[in-house]
Structures are given as structure tokens and as C-alpha cells.
Amino acid sequence: MPRSVAPLRAVNVGGGHTAREPRPPARRRVPWGLVALFGVAGVAHFVAPAFFDAIVPRWLPMSPRAATLWSGAAELAGAIGLVPRATRRAAGIGLVALLVAVFPANVQMLLDAIARDASPAWIAALVLRLPLQPVLMRWVWRAAVRGPGSRRA
Predict the structure, then answer these.
(1) Does residue 127 register a pLDDT over 70?
(2) Which region, left, alpha or beta, applies to residue 101 given φ > 0 means left and ψ of -120 to 50 means alpha?
(3) What is the model's pTM?
(4) Which member of 39, 85, 117, 144 lies 3.0 to 4.6 Å from 79 by CB, making a disulfide possible if both were Cys?
């Protein structure tokens, strides 16, 4: 489909008739899936902080609890920032940066699981989780920063 042709949606124009009207580009729509994902994750940092404290890398120059609360606050701020169009781009950039920053915690979680002889299934799940982080970064980038129609992202 040429880029100039937008997807259409039915709109009631009165009298029982419908007309087809172009849908707004995806970057104009709120990325509700991302809002929910980061919102739930952010709340979880405050509801069950001990889980997140345990995966904070030991070399980080702050307490595990501080890292947990700051990352939870950043996830909540990012989720909220994705809703208004005016802040969506900044929130997207911030969330991609956050995903890069928390990647070492995902690695730490895997290393800890290996060290305590966790089940092979759990270790496999943690290994498979690592390449999903760039996929999530791309989803955020396309939905909030570049838009899905861009070929450069």
C-alpha cells in the first residue's frame, strides 16, 4: 500500500449510513499496550520491591532499593508520558534509555539463577528473555519516537 494511502475505518455519518475515513497514523494513537506494560511493571516495583532488589547488579553505585524505586518511577513516568501526544516522543526516548539501563539486571537475574542451580526451564526462559529486550526497545521506538511508517527505525 502506498504511504499516501491511510487505512480506512467506518464512521457513522448519520441516518444509518457509514463513510470511510482515514485512520490516524499509528504514532498519533496512544500505544496502550506499552502504557499497560510499563504501568504494571512500574507499579510492581513498589508493590514487590524485594524481587527487583534481588536482581540489581552488585556493582551498581546505589542501594538495590534505591535502584528499584528509581526504575519503577521511571517506568511509571514513561507510561504516563506515552499518553499525551505532546510528551510521547520524550517518553519513548526515556523508556528506550531505561531499557538499556536495566538490561544488566536481566543478565544478573540469569547469572544468579545459574549460580543457585535453578531449573533448566527457568534458565532457558531467562536466556530467551535477553534478546526480547531489543524487540521491546524497537516497539517503543516505533510507537513513540519514529512511528511505524518510518523506514529508518
Answers:
(1) yes
(2) alpha
(3) 0.78
(4) 39
